[in-house]
Structure formats: C-alpha cells, structure tokens
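Q: What would this complex look like in 3D?
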Amino acid sequence: MRLSRGGYLIREGFRSITTHGFMSFASVTIIMACLIIMGSVSLLSLNIDALIKDLESQNEIVVFVDEAITDEDSARAIGKNIEALENISSVQFVSREDAMKNFMSRYDSSLMEGIDSTVFRHRFVVKLVDIALMSETKMDLESLKGVAKVNAHLDYAQSFVTIRNVVTAVSLVLIVILVFVSFFIMSNTIKLATFGRREEIAIMKMVGATNGFIRLPFVIEGLVLGILGGGLAFLAEWGLYNVVTEKLVSSITGSLIEVVPFRSVALEVFVIFMAVGILVGAFGGVNAIRNYLKV
Amino acid sequence: MVIMKNVRKVYESSDTVALDDVSLTVGDGEFVFLVGPSGSGKTTIMKLITGEVRPTSGTVLVNDFDMSTIRRRKLPKVRRTLGVVFQDYRLIENMNVYDNVAFAMRVVGAAHRDIRTRVPYILELVGLEGREKRMPGELSGGEQQRVAIARALVNSPRMIVADEPTGNLDPVRSLELMLLLEKINEMGTTVLVVTHEKELVNAFSKRVITIDGGKKISDGEEGYYGQ
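A: Here is my prediction, written as structure tokens for the whole assembly.
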C-alpha cells in the first residue's frame, strides 16, 4: 500500500468519527457504560474477597503446650516444629505468665487471688495461610510432641470458606454474564452505527474498492472509539470508586472496612479496559461491515 | 466488451427465472440500449456484468474476465474497468462534488497529483465546473447524475454501464444526459444504457437489445423500442 493511500485511509477513519458524530458518541458511551459496570462488579468482588481474607487472617488457632513442660525455653522450642508445618502463616509464643496477665485484664482479677500462673499452660497463637485447611493443620499440630491440646474454631473457618466460595462463584458468573452482555450491546451499537453507511460501502465496492481498502478506515475508527471509550471508562471508574469508597469508609459501619486502594489495581484495570475497548472497537467495526462487503 | 452466452439466471431464494438462455455481445466502442419492461431481466444483466450476481449456467465475459468463475477478491479488478451509473445517483452525501469524484481515483490508488489534474478535467467534461465544493444535497437531480457520470468516468473505464440513468430526471435533463453519454462514447468508451424509456431510446439511432420475460426478444442496429 502506498504511503499516501495509507495516510488517506487513516485520515478517513478519523474524519468518519466527526462526520458520524452522534453514532460515534453513542458507541463511546455504550463502551464506557459496559466497561464501568463490568469494572465496578469486578472491583466489588475484589473488595469482598480482600475483606474475607482479612477476616480469615484474624482467625487464630491456640496450641497448648503439655503441662509437664514447665520450662519456658523447652516450651518455646516447640515453636520451631510448629513453624515447620505446612499452612502456617505466623507463630507467636505466649508464656503462662503472659496468658495469666491477659486473662486478668479481661476478667475480674479477684477471681485469680491466691492462684499463680502455673494453672496456665504455655501456648502458641498460630495463624494459617489458608483456613480452608484448618482441620488438617489442627491434626498436624495435635500430632506434635509436647502439644497437649489445640483450640481451633473449625465451624467459623468453614463458614468463611463457604462465604468466600459463594462470593467467588457469584462474582465469576456475574462477570462472565456482564462480559457477554457488554460485547453483545457494544457490537450491536457499532452495527447500528455502520448500518447507515452500507450505501457508502456499496458505492465503494462498485467503484472497485478492495475489502481491505474499505475495512481499514472502519478499523481505525473502531480503534479510536474503543481507546476513547476504554480511557474515559477508566477515568470514570477511578473517580466513581474513590467517591464510593470514601463515603463507605467515612460511614459508621464502614469504619471497620479496609478497601482496596484503586492505585493498587489501576494498571490492571487500565490494561483490561483498553484491551476490551480496542478489541470491541476494531473487531466490532470489521464484524459490523462484514455483510455489506459481500457485494 | 461483454459476451454473454446461453446465460440462465435463477434466483434460488424466490425460485424466479430472471434470464433464460440469453446470448448477446457488446463490442468495444459500441453504444447500446438494453430495453424492456420492469421485471424483464434488464437489471439482472446489469448485475451479472458488475459481478453482483453469478449466472446459474452459461458464460458471462466482461472486459476479458470470466464472471461465471471469477473469485470474489478479483471483482475489484473487473469493476475498475467499468464505470457504473445508477438511477438514484448513489453519491456519498457527506462528500462534496470534488471528493465524490476523487474518491473513485483514491480507491484505485491514484497519486494526489493525478487526482488534482484529472478530477477538474472530468468535472468540466460533464459540465460541472465551478460546482466542486457543492454537496450532493445542494445539486439538482441532473447535476447529481452528472457527478455520478464523472465518478464513473474518472478512472477511464473501458465501459460505462448505466442502469436507468434518467429514471429520476425530467425529459430535458434526460436528453442532456443522454447526449453527454453519447459524447463519452464518441471519445472511445463503450456505453451500455439500461432503460425502459421508449421516447429517449427512439430519439437516438443506436443499437437496441430488447429483453422480455427473461429472454432476448430483439437486437438491432439503429433499433427501435416499440410496443
């Protein structure tokens, strides 16, 4: 292709955006709207997932050392064996003296009058990597030498796992449905935008234009509209996310919630939005005129 | 040049026989009227020539291309040897007169310099000098059809195929347009005019091929389109 011809086709692509201003506006708006809905659901799901993970990480297992082991150093040594197990995130040793202090701080200290710390056992507070494996880890801990008892809230853990699985499944289904619906809406909008130009395409064919010559301006136009839609959707999503999360955090119930900062996912959101915009724009444009080229 | 031999065309969707065993030849440099009533098969012949449809059987040769077997991607090559004019002009509404004509040259990859010299020359030839910046909507029907002829002519095609070119014009404009096509023919381009306007055909002493009911009824030099 000659350079001058390539330049002409690129110019035609840009010119077409302004000459078909309303349809260009409609295409960009639809691409934006679909991306914002998809993005919002994804970000919501990401936050719910992060929240559950955070709650999961607070779910601790308490490992009681055999009361025959009174010496603190010997008790601490068991910590090494605990750390060596799989699925262990952190291990914190709590001596029987510290355990008693904690108890007294929480309950009426008069209850402990005349009682010394020997009634308490040395213990470890253990956090897990994945609480779905809590039952297996509990058994591993119980099998360790020097461990007398393991307190684990298996029922809580199971509830968290169930919630997480349900949220993941619902989010995935929602996102997949939204992706399909969005592609359908976006490609139909582009089809509608090109419908009015079927006559123009028929004229091009009659004067001997090749399919490539006809397609290229549509590809350029679709690319530009897709990039515009993707870029604007990214900015809108950013603004929307910040407004909503600020309100949520400042509200009473929201003060306990820690939201995922947009900056931490901005690059991924940008790349996905642009990729979807470009794909839908370019392929949507080419697909929309495919039938008109068969003359 | 067009050579049609024993051409049959059946539209499968409606099971309509549009052409039945039609044979005709249009030689280089000829001016031919293809006449017949509505639904006689004229437009099907036109579509066979431009490659919009393929014959069910028989052979159609257009400017040395076999339209019965031609691959779809080769169609632009055939169409570049033809200049097609339609009843409804088919101009691009958002392009001015100059661009509507220049566009046909851009399609075939002509250089800017050639476009700049050729387009004004053709617009002058069809009597549209000074109208370059006008949009199609600002022109009369006759002027719009002249733009369509200029577009058909700008790439120096071997043949102009005009489908009811005067269908939307009054008698005076129709005659002017036909005189323009005659002038183009005298300059060496083959002209095939599809029409059903008897008065216009009979005003010119040209070859007339008559089609009716999908069959060729007559073919005569300095012909007459009668009842």
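A: To summarize the key features: The radius of gyration of chain A is 31 Å. Chain A has two domains: 3-55+160-293, 60-152.
Q: Very helpful, thank you.
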